[in-house]
Amino acid sequence: MNENVIAPGGPAGSTVFKDERKQAYLNPEGADRPLKSPLPRATLDRARRYRLGRLRAKMQEWNCGALLLYDPVNIRYAFDSSNMSIWTMHNASRYALILADGPAILFEFEGAEHVNYGLPGIDEIRPAKSWIFFTAGDLIESRMKQWADEVADVIRSQGRNARIAVDKLEPAGAFELRKRGFDLLDGQELAERARSIKSADEIELMRWTIRVCEAGMARMYETSEPGRTEREIWAELHFENARSGGEWLETKLLTAGARTNPWYQECSDYEIKAGEMISFDTDMIGPYGYCADLSRSWTCGHRAMNEKQRELYAAARDQIDHNLAVLRPGLAFAAFNDRSWRIPEKYIPYRYTLALHGTGMADEWPGVLLHPDFDRNCSGTIEQDMVLNVESLIAEAGSESIKLETQVLITAAGAERLDTFPWEDV
């Protein structure tokens, strides 16, 4: 199973202890070529229709005349439209308006309308009216009123009622719409509840994103050698994602050795030493805009774990395996909590507060807290065709942290793992 081989990219003549199971995830077409999706266009087109249909169904359920979206993840879900997603997350310069009984309109950044040509869910493309301070300055008020007038005119002429669901909107914009007689609802809840139930085509798209992520993880594994920096290893995931059609990484959660505890430190120029634990969480928005949120931990130089590392790793695997076995459709969050793995007292101060969370085009609803924190959890039920992530973070005073996470589809029979990148042998 394992053998000493020449380390790709390592010093001439050097060897490291390798795991052939992980080498199998490297791009079979060669390290110098990106992965290319084998999925037919029909799969994507069906997923597009399904997603827009999910939003419209929720609008009907909420008796909502219009849905106004600014969150680029929600716009991607609705239309498969992606344009400057990270920039528009903090610069509200493009938006979508979906009418319950009328057209779906994309208001695109001026000059970029052409990037949306051919997207089947969009009935009309208009130039966006931006009123952010960066571009509007002392003209914010007049531009905001022009924006509100246009939105109001569309809804009054083609909407069923004055109830608008809005996901993200500056307070001044909300006031302008209310002054025009509209009731505002929580569009983020509407969108995330719609997004939480996946179609079979969505799952195929997610499987491909996970394939790309695991190829990136294999590159990370191959370069986990003494003297590498945390940032060097993290960059391998960026590289594989970007060249294979992916989008971005939501976090920079890769650390090594003592820097793994406490968790949530970001990757740095720390040079990793042989035998130190490397722990990471991918949080990768990949091809087709879907998220691959996987966590693994292994030792630098692929050395055998020491006694403490093995103890912590075994506990993390116990938590993952136990909670996977509990999952089934129809299980209330509270019932899951009652049956979930109990974290030992010595690990509690260093815990990860989430036991489960939803995943789609990003981390999303629902979030289910670990049992010591569950008294402040929301209510809800695990449903068939949700995609959930099962989490573990195990550490104690003075130790390294082990971070493990797997992504699963809830089926009638329970939890089906979507990722297959091997765990470590301990």
Automatic annotation (TrEMBL):
Chain ranges of the Creatinase N-terminal domain: 51-197
Keywords, in A-Z order: Aminopeptidase, Hydrolase, Protease
InterPro entries from the UniProt entry: Creatin/AminoP/Spt16_N (IPR029149), Creatinase/aminopeptidase-like (IPR036005), Creatinase_N (IPR000587), Pept_M24 (IPR000994), Peptidase_M24B (IPR050659)
Organism: Rhizobium mongolense
Keyword Metal-binding annotated: no
Taxonomy, superkingdom: Bacteria
Keyword Chaperone: no
CDD domains, per database record: APP_MetAP
Peptidase M24 domain: residues covered: 204-412
Protein name, per record: Xaa-Pro aminopeptidase
UniProt cross-references to Pfam families, sorted A to Z: Creatinase_N, Peptidase_M24
Gene Ontology molecular function: aminopeptidase activity
